[in-house]
Amino acid sequence: MTPTLPGGLLHQIGFHIFIWEEMTTVRQEGKDKIIFVTKEDHATPSNAELVEENPDDPYEERGLILPNGDINWNCLCLGGMASGPCGTEFKEAFSCFHYSKEEVKGSECLDQFRTMQECMQRYPELYPQEEDDVPEENTSKAEPTTEDATATDSKSIFDSVQASDSTQASVGSPLES
Amino acid sequence: MLKCRSVWRKLAPFAGASATLCRQNVRRTGLNNGRTPAHVPAAHMATGPAGGGGGGQNHFYVLLVGGTCLGGAIYAYRTVKGDQRRYQERIAEISSRPHRRAKEATTSIRTEAPAVAEAEAQVKPPSREPSGPAPDAESAAPSETTQPPQADGPVFGGAAEEAPAEPQVEEAARRDSAQPSLTLPWHAPYLLIGGGTASFAAARSIRARDPGARVLIVTDEPDLPYMRPPLSKELWFSDDPAVTDTLRFKQWNGKERSIYFQPPSFYISPEELSKAENGGVAVLTSKKVVHMDVRGNKVKLDDDTEISYDKCLIATGGVPRNLQVLDRAGEEVKNRTTLFRKIEDFRSLDKVSRNTKSITVIGGGFLGSELACALGRRSHDSGLEVIQMFPEKGNMGKVLPEYLSNWTTEKVKTEGVKVLSEALVKSVTCKDDQLEIKLKDGRLVKTDHIVAAVGLEPNVDLAKSAGLEVDSDFGGYRVNAELQARSNIWVAGDAACFYDIRLGRRRAEHHDHAVVSGRLAGENMTGADKPYWHQSMFWSDLGPDVGYEAIGIVDSSLPTVGVFAKATAKDTPKAVTEKSGTGIRSESETEDVASSAAAPSAPAPAPAVAREDDYGKGVIFYLRDKVVVGIILWNVFNRMPIARKIIKDGEEHADLNEVAKLFNIHED
């Protein structure tokens, strides 16, 4: 049975210390500490303290809608929609939709949507016209923040964008791989 | 003046020699009749002393001296005349050239042209073979008249050079791929130097934020912007035999995509850039920026074209480092060495791997290990021998703590790679069509091909001409927290040594960093003024059992605390990663490999805890002054936001096991 040493003197290589109460194994190899934990060990909630998030932090990545109500065109959630060849048309259509105060939101924006769709039809490679709901952020680990604008027909885009609109995609977290 | 000097120089030895000879003779024979010696040196043509005394010996001397003087004089005369002739010819040739160029310039429409054309004319002749100046002039003239006049065109500089005349046909063909550059945009509001990941991310950012922005990307590669990670990972695992052409790979979710960020239809051509109503992104390929004039806000390309800008991003990345021994090893060795970075390197290495019997990867970092594993996979089918050698004790020795590095090395070995650790290359020679690598400890390795993956040298070629600061510790251009080097110049990607508010000044060579920094630079170029804050991450896959994501400063020299889940029967990394979907996992690898992990080099633990050395999954914290500055998520995925938060907080945590609880490592 190995005796427990006073805290801090765990610098012998390959020395095992069994802390019977917690069933956690701790080992020290030089400057590196190795801890093995069972599921039960980690069952109790953590008492680690995290700093509170500031929602108005100017440095943070923003969601789709900025604090002042404007649209964040560089939002990761939009993929490349606002920056591609049809970016201008997309911005116009979506701005109109966003600021629309009509009963049926965006009903007065049909012209802009049509222009946008016409533009997108000119670039079928970039805007494939298929029923695919997910704007392509989370597809490739190779590009967690860059995406190709393989967004689909405008309706589904606006559905998904509207969804993130209301949930206020925060700090880029859902947009990681 | 020149004539006199050259004459004197040619004659001086003779003059000196003959003069002394003469004088000596005079003294010897004796000037009995009182003729002064002063006359003698002047008479180097004449036969010196008058006859008299001495007898036959004198006559001999006289003849000898006279003959020498005469011969010398004749030689000198002919040499001088020859020089003069050659000189005249050269001057005549040079003076005839400006005359021809001036004829061209006068036919152009430009107003300020003459001065510019003269300057270009002087520059042009050295670069062109003097084979066809006449046809050049003729074809250049019509091309200039057909080009539409640039509305407000000062320094144009492009058209004359780019006329696809006879002597330039081969150049035009090389530069081709839809880049006739007849009407090159001379002004780009946003100029991005470098066509890689950072540049593309910036272009996207700029276009999103500045409506109708006109962005010009200038790259010395012939390809449009593409992502690099698949070149050493996914592309090697593709079943498609045409993968080297298509460059398409399968993502973890099963969808296929190309390594190119966007297909060619996304971009507009440089010629259209200034006219496009809503702007766009244009890419100028196979052109290198060689000079930057910060005062004048313009750059010069390798074909002497000048492009002016309002805002400029330098995202030139880097070039692979080479080992000194390889650099000095000679042509034969160099032909059998690959420095891996670009698409063409992937293509050539793919070809090599099919046609050789043995490849050695030198380097134990990310790229080296990934390539070794990718090639090792191939070796299962083809019998290719894959060797990896590096000076550290284990793979990723500079990144992972020793116990994990050793564990990883064992995994790499199971991928079919012969790993030689603590290997320092002393010399490389080519013998009998094979390479012989001699190590410092005496080991000898025979192989057919070498891949050197020993680091990246950041490209700071423009630092001198632009007057930009280069960092001596990390390399790269030194920029502030907002990635700005000078008022209109930003730097992003591998080439940027930036100030990270949280982690201090550093330089990162990862894909996600290129994306994050490129994006940030683009935002700041459009007025955002945000510092680097969203911490970038990176990842690596080395086969079915080793996959990790990391963030922050992950340096094995820092003290670490690793919290691992005690492995249970159902915790196979393969199952975990397939479910969360992170990398390519080979179907042929079985779980046998996972559970029979070789013991690390630490003293053998008691049998009761043998299973604990199976570092299946966990979290490793890297500490600097008790603050977590880096985190590795070892076979746990989709927890990066938590890791990012911990680094962002920068707090001292007393018990890192408690922090580890936040990651729920036991769950999928």
Question: SS-based structural class of chain B?
Answer: alpha/beta
What radius of gyration of chain B results from the CA coordinates? Answer: 35 Å
* Low-pLDDT stretches of chain B: 34-44, 46-53, 104-182, 579-611
The total count of helices of chain A amounts to: 3
The end-to-end distance of chain A, rounded to whole angstroms, is 46 Å
Looking at the chains present, what oligomeric state does this protein adopt?
A: heterodimer
Give the termini separation of chain B: 89 Å
Helix content of chain B: 25-40%
How many E strands of chain A? 3
| Number of strand elements of chain B | 28
Written overview of the protein:
- The complex is a heterodimer of chains A (177) and B (668).
- Chain A is an alpha+beta fold and 177 residues long.
- Helices cover 22% and strands 9% of the residues of chain A.
- In chain A, helix 1 (87-99) runs antiparallel to helix 2 (110-121).
- The two termini of chain A are 46 Å apart.
- The termini of chain B are far apart.
- In chain B, helix 3 (56-106) packs across helix 4 (113-127).
- In chain B, a hairpin with a 3-residue loop joins strand 22 and strand 23 (504-506).
- In chain B, strands 1, 2, 5, 6, 7, 8, 20 and 21 form an eight-stranded mixed sheet that branches.
- Chain B is 37% helix and 20% strand.
- The interface between A and B is large, with 59 and 84 residues.
- Strand 3 (32-37) of chain A pairs parallel with strand 26 of chain B, so a sheet runs across the interface.
